[in-house]
Amino acid sequence: MNDGDNRPDPDELLSSLFNEEEKSKRGKLKIFFGMCAGVGKTYTMLEAAHNDKNKKNCDVIIGYVETHNRKETSELVEGFELIPRRKYLYKTTTVQEMDLDTIIARKPQIVLVDELAHTNAPGSRHAKRYQDVQEILENGINVYTTLNVQHLESRSETVAQFTGIIVRETLPDEIFENADEVELVDLSADELLQRLSEGKVYVHERSKEALENFFRLGNITALREMALRIVADRVDKQLHDYMQHKRIRGPWKTGMHLLVAVGPSPYSGKLMRWAKNLAYAMGADIQALYVETLHKLTSKERELLDKNINLAKQLGIKFRIITNYDIVKAIIDFAQKENVTHIIVGKPRVRNILSMFRLDRFVRRLIRFSGNIDVYILGSDSQAKDYFKKKASVPSFTSSIRQYLTVSLFIILSSVICFIIQAYIGYQVVSFILLFLVSILALFYGTGPILLAATLSALIWDYFFIPPAFTLNIEKPLDMLMLLMFFIIALLNGILTSRIRNQEKKIRVREERTNALYQLTGELSMTSGIEEVTKTARNYIKKYFNLDCAIILKNERNVLNNNVWHDPNMELTENDLSIAAWVFKHSSKAGKHTDTLPSGKYTFYPLTGINENMGVIAVELPHVFTHGEEQFWNTFISQISSNFEREFLRNTAKNAYILNESDKLYKTLFNSISHELRIPVTTIMGASDTLLSQSYPEETRLKLYSEINTASVRLNRLIENLLNMSRLESGRITPHPDWCDVHDLANSIADSLKQELQPFKLSTIIPADMPLVNIDFGLIEQVLHNLILNATQNAPAGTRIRLKFFYDNGFLTMMVMDRGNGFPESELSSVFNKFYRGKDAKAGGTGLGLSIVKGFVEANKGTVIAGNRQNGGAIFTIKIPVEISEMNQY
Fold this sequence. Notes:
Blueprint: H1 10-25, E1 29-34, H2 41-55, E2 60-64, H3 71-77, E3 81-82, E4 86-90, E5 93-97, H4 100-106, E6 110-113, H5 129-138, E7 142-148, H6 153-163, H7 173-177, E8 181-184, H8 189-197, H9 204-212, H10 217-245, E9 257-261, H11 268-282, E10 285-292, H12 299-315, E11 318-323, H13 327-337, E12 342-346, H14 361-369, E13 374-378, H15 385-389, H16 401-420, H17 422-425, H18 427-441, H19 447-465, H20 477-526, H21 530-545, E14 549-554, E15 560-566, H22 574-586, E16 590-591, E17 603-608, E18 613-619, H23 627-676, H24 678-693, H25 698-730, E19 738-740, H26 742-752, E20 761-765, E21 773-775, H27 777-794, E22 800-808, E23 811-817, H28 849-859, E24 863-868, E25 874-881
Parallel strand pairs: 1-7, 1-8, 2-3, 2-6, 6-7, 9-10, 9-12, 10-11, 12-13, 20-22
Antiparallel strand pairs: 4-5, 14-15, 14-18, 16-17, 17-18, 19-21, 22-23, 23-25, 24-25
Helix pairs in contact: 2-3, 6-11, 11-12, 13-14, 16-18, 16-19, 18-19, 18-20, 19-20, 20-21, 20-23, 21-23, 24-25, 25-28, 26-27, 27-28
């Protein structure tokens, strides 16, 4: 049977369950989708809301609905709770926007939000309304909204092409793709034009203008086709996902993977949009690739590249950057490693004189080496004749004028020196000197200056040195060949050296960043505690980014702490803290240089660990990070976040351990109450009750008094042990050493255990030259008391118990020995554990005595070791570092 072949993969199943669980916490997004304004999206949305309210008894409110003074739409608004709009002053105009906070606080089941792609007024929390909607969804509130096809990012440029109207308000395609439900609101072109002419979409004056511009029959038909196709593709994708989820075998082909090659070009945006449309239609995944070469980007090119990277993120395209000299080879190698099935590139455009000679070389090589990978070449609306409308330009160079002047000066000075000594070295040697100079200059300057240096040195050598001098005429063919070879070698040598230098610079930057991450990781691995991690993080951010930062961490209640670690140059206001709270809640960056609350002074980033958000970090960015800088920054923050999470988990584990120990103590106390406390209390109650109820002879009364006293001592010993353990656990044991004679210590212990030691022989061994020692008399007395008491409980009656003292090399050594059964070898490592009682231990006791011994000894910076004597019995050896009195020296 092949049933096993169709079993679900456990990892995929767990991932699916996790995604479903996460999705279940969010609200549901339903989009009423149409080809353009006037098809009835808002009307249909309100009808659906009425249906949910009346038939399903749903709590529905209006967050923002624009009726455009249409009578039918205005009537449907009645019956719903309307959240008042928030007002913003923009220049001299008051602008009304949706009140996001009130909606979230109201917590309805469904909120109606019109015009999803709308741009919010300056001062709003988010730049776009779809970001408001995402926050509402994250709070578990369902949203009904409306959207036109031209507002999708991937379709906006196509719509602009055939309508002639540029759409400014767009939203990322992933918002539409991730919607839980999309309902198409459709009208035929004739019906829509009829509604326009009747003034049901716009007022009559505006309707006439709209009919002459945007709402032409051809435009409406094209928009309708686009909307129908998008919804059809979505349904097809949903069916495909359903079959995959249910593991239904189908006739579909293997997956398709698209790769779009982009660069710092304004045409790359269109290329990515077209590729995204193709990927959506084909049900394929898609990546974008930029190959970084030796060409140094200008500020404008860098800006275009960053814009294309951000567009890729909006379109949901994974963007990759690699480095290689050969763009074609880099694309093919990457495509083969990533199992790409289709490569999408733009048609080469003539930019300057040199590019005319390599116009089709890129495409030809790409097709030649692509193998089984299909290549799509996307042209532009610009015709070839556009090139001739522009002036021919020279290749773009990024070196400054100062560099060109500097290399010229070096060549001229060197030529003057060579001219002076020409009679001694000959004109052929001059060529080698100039060639060497060009090679040296290539180590410090770019391609443009090196090209100038090679040309200038060749001309100077020809004019001033090659016979006949002071002419450009060359008589000997050999000199002509040498001049030509000189120029070629100088140019190639200079360019290759410059290329290596540029590559070395990029490698150095990467090595510096790798080393920075290595240093940060190493430093953080050796830190312990939240404050140490915070201090290290701030130091390294200052060192490698030259940025002041403020770090706000969460507390035990999972909200941001009021304590903020920040540099003296930063001061967070209440508004800044509110932005930080929003970033912590949504795990998304906000503030300056972002689309969310961009009016702030600082940029806020979430400290997202592996499992949860640890807090927020705020920095004052002077400019937007480039792609490479942002990757470095994100990796930096990720390392810091992981270490904060480690410290939080360490504290959590510590608290869990304390709770576990508390639970163990709780159980032990219950056992003690039921046994250790119960027996002496019962004895005391019984004896006292007997004494009170009847008259007994003196001998009997003395015996009862003795029982009460023995029970009281036992009860007092148990309470003392519990109190001592409590003191040890709380860290409140602080030794108070004083000078004492160990003879007094031994006598005090013998007196306190006089009754328990009656059946035994106690031998105390103290050297005659034993000095006075500086110890905490009370703590050491308690230690020896517990050890000797333990011996009386485990040694046979009539045997000898030995207590030995001696001083050796700065340590006071005390030994307690008995002739009991000793300890099994397997238990020697556990005898000092709290609540531990051996397998052969007598009934009674809590197992705290030896644990208290260890705690008191360690409080005195000493050690205690348990062992077995050679001929039977146990031995405890205590070593405590002590000072001895100067009186012992006389």
